[in-house]
Each structure stands twice: as structure tokens, then as C-alpha cells.
């Protein structure tokens, strides 16, 4: 194996694709075998937020940015402590940390959190293959002793069923109702206490929610209640929320059909504001009667241009999805509000005549630009209006 230094070392990791292609490299993180879908992410920052986003459950992330490790690892950039990405594929050895927030090196954090990785592989070759041929399943094998059973990895990759049809929400959702109180991280160091109480009560249904969605709502002074993905319509009503957020999450939206979608369908009959994010957006589409599809290579990065069709404005967005609402057979009551300027796919919808909308991307960013934060304001404005109308009619 050719290391960056030119030194030849025996390989301690292998990445074996489902078509049998094998990349050898330097193992990092936790030894063992991980099998999942191989995706690539083009973000230049935020590797810890990416790796802890529960939407990545069942996936191995190839980073196209070559310097991974320079911010080390800290306690603030965790998007969740549940299952998330299985591991990572990087071009060079992990860079030494040189950031004031770093508490430990990326390598020791990976090991402590059970993530596997391979370094010193040609990430450009992997990425161009995934772009050309679409997503592939892969096995990531790490063994510090170098006894790599490539055949076992090849078999595991070939036999992995793939994300289509796979429901991974039960592996990442919270099991109990809880309250979220922490605001957004501030550059001065530390989390902001939520702003003055806005009096708005928001329920977030947790399909694998990222903490920065919860922080954004708490920061705006909302009372945030997090409910498990299996929450029934009655359990949601029992909180008497002024607005509902359907969170991001992993796996195939169509595979959650027997619990989440019927509940969302019932919520659509009501008049409460609803905001869907990523998996939540896809499931909102399903509940409204649309179809979802598996994309070829998906969108994973922090620089995806999206046009808001209502204002004409273009925003640069943070994205992480492999499924999307299909353009075919859209129900008449669903209006497309946002589209990707990369490939024209649907990036936002709203239910005509109702305060209900959703986006395919991540308005909370983490990592990524903050262009889409206005969507939280748009949602909270609808929530405020709903609450004052409700109080006015009492
Ligand atoms: N970030 C998300 O919520 C991802 C949604 C879904 N699992 C997809 O890959 O399309």
C-alpha cells in the first residue's frame, strides 16, 4: 500500500464494494467488519457532525475533502449519541488536531465510539465511481494485525440487502417523551440559554433528530417536547402543541409506512402548522399521497444550490439524502416550493391552503451554511398565527 509519505506498510483495512472491487489502506477506529451503503460527502468542514447525524445509519461515508481530523473531536459537535454512520473513508492519514475546541484526536474519538475507518485510499476514484454508477454497498474491514479476510468482506458486501426497503428509524429514535432545553452554540463558548419564552409549544417527532434542529427551536424560545417515532396521534394531541416538526432520519421513508405515515396522515387532517425536514419531508409527501424513490447517488454535502420557487431566491444548503419525493404522480394538493439546481429534484413542498410545508435539505445546517435558517422563522410565524387564532376563538 502506498502511504502519503511514500513508505510501504502492510494494509490494516480493506474497503470491499459489492461488485468485488477492493481498496486496501490504513485502518483507523474500531477493528471489525461494518457493512452498509457507501456514499460520498463533499463538505469541507463538520466531519464530526456528519458522522453523528443519525440519518447516516447504515451508511459508510467517503469524505472528498482531504484533510480530516484538524478540528479533532469535541462534545459540542455531536448531532446525536445514537447509531449514526458506520464508518469513514478518507484520502490521507488523520490530520493532527489544531483547534481550540478539540478535546481529543479524531482517531481516539472514533475508537471510543465504535466507528471504523480506512485511510490512504483513492477517494477521488471511489467518488467518481459512485457518481457514475450510483450508490454501492460495501464492507469495511479493519484489523490492526493485518489479517484481512477479504473473501468474508466481499461476501458480506454482496449479500447486504441495501437501504431500499430498510426501516432504520427504530434503531435511532428516542424511546420516551422528553423536553429539550439547550440553545445554540455561541462563538463566545458555551450554549446560549434559550431566548425569552415565546410561549410556543412545539412537538418534534424523533425519527433520528439532529440536536441542532432542537437547539434552533429552543433558541427561539419554544417549549420543545420530543416524542418517539412510534407516538400515536392521541399521544401527540396530549401535548397540545402549537406546531409539529417531523425530523430527519435514516433509511427508506417508504419502509416506515405502517407507523409513521398513518399518524402524519391523521395530522394532515388537522389545522396545526407542520414542518418536515428531510426524512420528515419524505414521509409528509407519502402521507399526502406522493411517492418516494431511491436516487442514483444521493446528495451529501454542504454546498447544494436550491431555489425557493416562491421567492426566486437561491440558497446554498446542507444536504444528506438518498431518497426523494418523486415528480411522478404528485397529488393535486401538494405544491412543489423548492428544487435542486444541481439535478432539478424536489427539495420542498407545501400542502395547498394549509400551514404545512417541508424541505428535503437541512435548514439547521450543522455542518453547512445558514442560508436556510429563514425556514424556522417561516414555520414559527405560522405557529404564532395558529396560536393567536386558537386563543382568539376561545
Ligand atoms: N437526512 C435525512 O433525513 C435522510 C432521509 C433519508 N434517509 C434519505 O436518505 O433520503
UniProtKB/TrEMBL annotation:
The organism's superkingdom is given as Bacteria
Recorded hits in CDD domains, A to Z, give: GATase1_CPSase
Q: What is the enzyme's class at the highest EC level?
A: ligase
Q: Which reaction does it catalyse?
A: hydrogencarbonate + L-glutamine + 2 ATP + H2O = carbamoyl phosphate + L-glutamate + 2 ADP + phosphate + 2 H(+); L-glutamine + H2O = L-glutamate + NH4(+)
EC numbers: 6.3.5.5
Name the active site residues: 278 (nucleophile), 362, 364
Q: Which residues bind L-glutamine?
A: 55, 249, 251, 279, 282, 320, 322-323
A GO BP annotation: glutamine metabolic process
Keywords per UniProt:
Amino-acid biosynthesis, Arginine biosynthesis, ATP-binding, Glutamine amidotransferase, Ligase, Nucleotide-binding, Pyrimidine biosynthesis
Q: In which pathway does it act?
A: Pyrimidine metabolism; UMP biosynthesis via de novo pathway; (S)-dihydroorotate from bicarbonate: step 1/3; Amino-acid biosynthesis; L-arginine biosynthesis; carbamoyl phosphate from bicarbonate: step 1/1
Any one GO molecular function term = carbamoyl-phosphate synthase (glutamine-hydrolyzing) activity
**Which InterPro entries did the record assign?**
Anth_synth/Amidotransfase, CarbamoylP_synth_ssu, CarbamoylP_synth_ssu_N, CarbP_synth_ssu_N_sf, Class_I_gatase-like, CPSase_GATase1, GATASE
**Which residue range or ranges hold the Carbamoyl-phosphate synthase small subunit N-terminal domain?**
11-141
Q: Where is this region: CPSase?
A: 1-200
HAMAP family assigned: CPSase_S_chain (MF_01209)
**Family named by the database record:** Belongs to the CarA family.
> Can you state the subunit structure given in the record?
Composed of two chains; the small (or glutamine) chain promotes the hydrolysis of glutamine to ammonia, which is used by the large (or ammonia) chain to synthesize carbamoyl phosphate. Tetramer of heterodimers (alpha,beta)4.
Q: What task does this protein carry out?
A: Small subunit of the glutamine-dependent carbamoyl phosphate synthetase (CPSase). CPSase catalyzes the formation of carbamoyl phosphate from the ammonia moiety of glutamine, carbonate, and phosphate donated by ATP, constituting the first step of 2 biosynthetic pathways, one leading to arginine and/or urea and the other to pyrimidine nucleotides. The small subunit (glutamine amidotransferase) binds and cleaves glutamine to supply the large subunit with the substrate ammonia.
Name under which the protein is recorded: Carbamoyl phosphate synthase small chain
Q: Gene encoding this chain?
A: carA
Amino acid at each position: 500500500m502506498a502511504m502519503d509519505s511514500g513508505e510501504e506498510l502492510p494494509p490494516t483495512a480493506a474497503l470491499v464494494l459489492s461488485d468485488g472491487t477492493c481498496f486496501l489502506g490504513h485502518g483507523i477506529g474500531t477493528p471489525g467488519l461494518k457493512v452498509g451503503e457507501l456514499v460520498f460527502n463533499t463538505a469541507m468542514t463538520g466531519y464530526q457532525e456528519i458522522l453523528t447525524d443519525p440519518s447516516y445509519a447504515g451508511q459508510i461515508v467517503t469524505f472528498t475533502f482531504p484533510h480530516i481530523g484538524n478540528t479533532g473531536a469535541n462534545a459540542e459537535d455531536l448531532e446525536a449519541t445514537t447509531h449514526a454512520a458506520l464508518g469513514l473513508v478518507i484520502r490521507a492519514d488523520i490530520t493532527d488536531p489544531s483547534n481550540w475546541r478539540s478535546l481529543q484526536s479524531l482517531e481516539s474519538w472514533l475508537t471510543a465510539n465504535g466507528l471504523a475507518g480506512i485511510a490512504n485510499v483513492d477517494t477521488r476514484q471511489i467518488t467518481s465511481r459512485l457518481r457514475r454508477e450510483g450508490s454501492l454497498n460495501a464492507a469495511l474491514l479493519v484489523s490492526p494485525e493485518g489479517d484481512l479476510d477479504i473473501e468474508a468482506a466481499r461476501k458480506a458486501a454482496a449479500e447486504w440487502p441495501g437501504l431500499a426497503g430498510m426501516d432504520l428509524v427504530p434503531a435511532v429514535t428516542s424511546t420516551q417523551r422528553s423536553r429539550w432545553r439547550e440553545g445554540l452554540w455561541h462563538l463566545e463558548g458555551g450554549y446560549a440559554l434559550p431566548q425569552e419564552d415565546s410561549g410556543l409549544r412545539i412537538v418534534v417527532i424523533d425519527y433520528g433528530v439532529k440536536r441542532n434542529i432542537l437547539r434552533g427551536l429552543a433558541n427561539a424560545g419554544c417549549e420543545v417536547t420530543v416524542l418517539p417515532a412510534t407516538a400515536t396521534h392521541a399521544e401527540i394531541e396530549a401535548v397540545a402543541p402549537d406546531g409539529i416538526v417531523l425530523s430527519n432520519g435514516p433509511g427508506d421513508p417508504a419502509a416506515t409506512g405502517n407507523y409513521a405515515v398513518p399518524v402524519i396522515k391523521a395530522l394532515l387532517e388537522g389545522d396545526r402548522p407542520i414542518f418536515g425536514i428531510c426524512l420528515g419531508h419524505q414521509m409528509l409527501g407519502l402521507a399526502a399521497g406522493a411517492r418516494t424513490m431511491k436516487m442514483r447517488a444521493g446528495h451529501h454535502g454542504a454546498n447544494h444550490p436550491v431555489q425557493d420557487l416562491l421567492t426566486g431566491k437561491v440558497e446554498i444548503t446542507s444536504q444528506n439524502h438518498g431518497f426523494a419525493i418523486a415528480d411522478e404522480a404528485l397529488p393535486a394538493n401538494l405544491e412543489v416550493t423548492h428544487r435542486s439546481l444541481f439535478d432539478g429534484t424536489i427539495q420542498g413542498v407545501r400542502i395547498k391552503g394549509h400551514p404545512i410545508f417541508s424541505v428535503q435539505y437541512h435548514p439547521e445546517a450543522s455542518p453547512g451554511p445558514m442560508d436556510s435558517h429563514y425556514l424556522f422563522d417561516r414555520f414559527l410565524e405560522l405557529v404564532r398565527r395558529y396560536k393567536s387564532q386558537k386563543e382568539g376563538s376561545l
